[in-house]
Amino acid sequence: MNGLATLVRLALRRNRWFYAAWILGMAAVVPATAAAYETIVGGLATTGALDLLAENPTMRAMLGPPYDLTSPGPFTVWRVGTFMATVAGIMAILGVVRVTRADEEEGRTELLRSGVVGRHAPLTAAVVVGLLACAVLGLLVGVSMVAVGEPVVGSVAYGLGSALVPAVLVGVGAVAAQVTSSARAARGLGLAVLGAAYLLRAVADASEEGSVVRGLAWLSPVEWMALVHPYDGERWWVLLLPAALTVLLVAAAFALEGRRDHGAGLWAVRPGRDRATPALLSVGGLVWRLQRGSLVGWFVGLAVFALGMGSLSGSFDTMLERIPRLEMMLRRLGQGADTLVDAFFVAMLGIVAVLAGVLAVQLWQRLAVEEHRGHAELILATAVPRTRLATAYLLLAAVGSTVLFAAFGALLGLPETLAQGDLGPMLGSLRGALVLVPGALLVLGLAVLLHGWAPRLSWIVWVVVGWSLFMVWVGSILGLPDWLVRLTPWEVLPALPVEEMDWTPVLAITGAALALMAMGLWGYRRRDLRLP
Amino acid sequence: MGVIEIHDLVKRFGSTVALDGLDLTVEAGEIHGFLGPNGAGKSTTIRVLLGLLRADAGTARLLGGDPWSDAAELHRRLAYVPGDVNLWPGLTGGEVIDLLGRLRGGLDERRRKDLLERFDLDPTRKGSTYSKGNRQKVALVAALASDVELLLLDEPTAGLDPLMEAQFREVIRQDQVDGRAVLLSSHILSEVEHLCDRVSIIRAGRVVESGTLAELRHLTRTQVQAEVSSPVPAELVGLPGVHDAVVHDHRFTAQVEDAALGDLLARLAPLGVRALTSTPPTLEELFLRHYDQSGAGTPRS
């Protein structure tokens, strides 16, 4: 383990802003939620509407199991805890891959390893720094909860859980970095594992009480923090699960690293074709070839998510029968099971609409990656005009994200359609999806504009997307002013079928998106290419 | 008319001046060496010629067209090999060669096969598994196998072993027979010396010297070593045009300007020459003289 201390310092130095941004962003939400408890919950507690909230499958699927909503502590754990543990997992995976596989791919690790640095030292440094970040996050969560006046014991449990759940993902990232031979694949594998864990607990939490499926939540690491039940008779032993799994995964990563060559993954790279197929021999063909992997990955993820969530809606009827009080309340509010299902679809579409924006921007920004890596230079030195290269990326980003989101919409309604033998639900959710597409196009347009005129500022689009995702997921409950929560490209679009169809915002946003794209392409034609 | 005509080209990156009034002319059918140390502006010049970067001032003509506004059309008639070739990790070398060839407008199948054999390149391997030299070969095959009028090669042999470098030289010489012009940037001087008809030396964004090798040699001195039977008279050391003279017993070494060679030999002959070596100036020396002097923008001649 020669040079470990140096490597840890180096990793800390190179990643301090990365971790600081993630940790502060997440940690700020926790005390804000606890402090806003009275505003959010207010009178609900006395009316029994809180129970309604607790049994609402949409809320359970998105946020986790509400074991106690009568005080700010456990309410915060439910409202933001599981969601934040998942987001912290993203941080953990990206952070570990940055220092391991990404550095190895860029040749930086080779430089270090050629010095007096032990074989496992770079991986150890990545794990140490990753775990340190998780610990800091947990500490901030615990301390801030105590600071807003919550019980110390519960806050300790909450803080420990918030640190140990992402710690598991540090292990996942470390293993993924060994198995794959590129940073892209490592990130993909790690995030796929995290996504699967989140989906598993979403399905489990939203299914009926006492069913076998609900018990499956115990298999999802992102659920373990909530299962400790902070502030409500803490089950401390549950914390052993993430701790043990982290140790196991990190040990596995070290074992795997000992068995592979530097620069290689466990999945060997096989030889390919000696000639290109005609399908590759155009700019569009190349772009498709480079992006199809991530499109297929997104499609599988979205399809599983859609079918998982969609099949939940079928259980709403039985749930209403089992909880008569819930049905009575819905009746009193003038709503029935249909409305409950519609509201569920609207909530799901609202979230995935922003994810479609993430996909569109990610597909487009591959062009920036191609410039940075010098691939674009090779292409643009041939008889390919810049606008043709950029348009190929833009078209795939727009069409790819639209098709995938439409497919998500259709698949979301599919289980209900099959159950009822009626095309209605499927067409309804498909329509609901299509009408939200302009939102993704608008952020895509912003990304194109930034890339064309100010490529250094391209991160701004991620702020917009991150803001939108945050608002659609947790914003409405933080007690923020309504106009602020609705300040996203998607919120002005009609939420079918709960709201009426309104063409004005749909056409206006589409027009704005197209204008931004055209301006961006114009700028891209005029500026210096970014070169490695 | 030249295939490349650059006059007073300026390119800035923020406050850094990368090209500072660069002039460069490459005639049709000639192999033109473009010499300079790292950071002198060689790659920037080539990237302006490719329309990847936009010039801030000055004029550049490429194959009779404007390298910025006519970029895509002009690129059908030229091929480019970057200094640091980065391939797509998931595409094989063969796929990249075919793709770049097609996007340029076509590939000569016979040459493709021939070049793969010459460079001993396995086209079935994925980009991520190639070494630096092999990535370079992929780009070279793609460029050399296409039927173009001009090759822009940015340090093309940086990763090649000596055997492959020799293959490369042979291919380029054959190309010249076909009437192709080549702009070859390099800091490997022997390569330029072996291949190029004319050379331009670039320093800090300006071309400080341009001409045929013979023309540039007049600027340099020949290394003379003589061993004579009688002691060397002291006045030899002070002759005009003789520099860094060292007299050691019966041996005499000095750097001699071409104009002073005759006079020196006439004075050496009566001393009874036992051995005489004269080493012609290499481009290395030429090069060092332009870059060893810190600060000075104008070359000493």
Please give a structural write-up.
The complex is a heterodimer of chains A (532) and B (301). By secondary structure, chain A is mostly helical. Chain A has a domain at 1-263. Chain A contains 24 helices and no strands. The two termini of chain A are 33 Å apart. Chain B is built from 10 helices and 13 strands. In chain B, helix 3 packs parallel to helix 5. The longest helix of chain B is centred in the middle third of the chain and has 16 residues, at 162-177. The model of chain B is unreliable at 294-301 (pLDDT under 50). The A-B interface holds A 181-182, 269-276, 280-283, 286, 289-290, 293, 373-375, 377-386, 388, 526-529, 531-532 and B 47, 50-54, 71-73, 75-76, 79-80, 82, 84-92, 94-96, 98-100, 102-105, 122-126, 128-129, 139, 152. Chain B: Keywords: Antibiotic resistance, ATP-binding, Nucleotide-binding, Transport. Chain B: It is a peripheral membrane protein. Chain B: It is found in: Cell membrane. Chain B: It comes from Ornithinimicrobium tianjinense.
Q: Which structural category do the helix and sheet elements of chain B fall into?
A: alpha/beta
Question: Given the C-alpha coordinates, what overall shape of chain A results?
Answer: globular
CATH architectural group of the largest domain in chain B:
3-Layer(aba) Sandwich
Query: Main β-sheet of chain A, in a few words?
Result: none
User: Could you tell me the strand content of chain B as a percent range?
Assistant: 25-35%
Strand elements of chain A, count = 0
Organism (chain A): Ornithinimicrobium tianjinense
Transmembrane segments (chain A): 17-37, 77-100, 121-149, 155-176, 188-204, 236-256, 295-316, 343-364, 392-412, 432-452, 459-483, 503-524
Keywords (chain A): Membrane, Transmembrane, Transmembrane helix
Protein name (chain A): Exporter of polyketide antibiotics
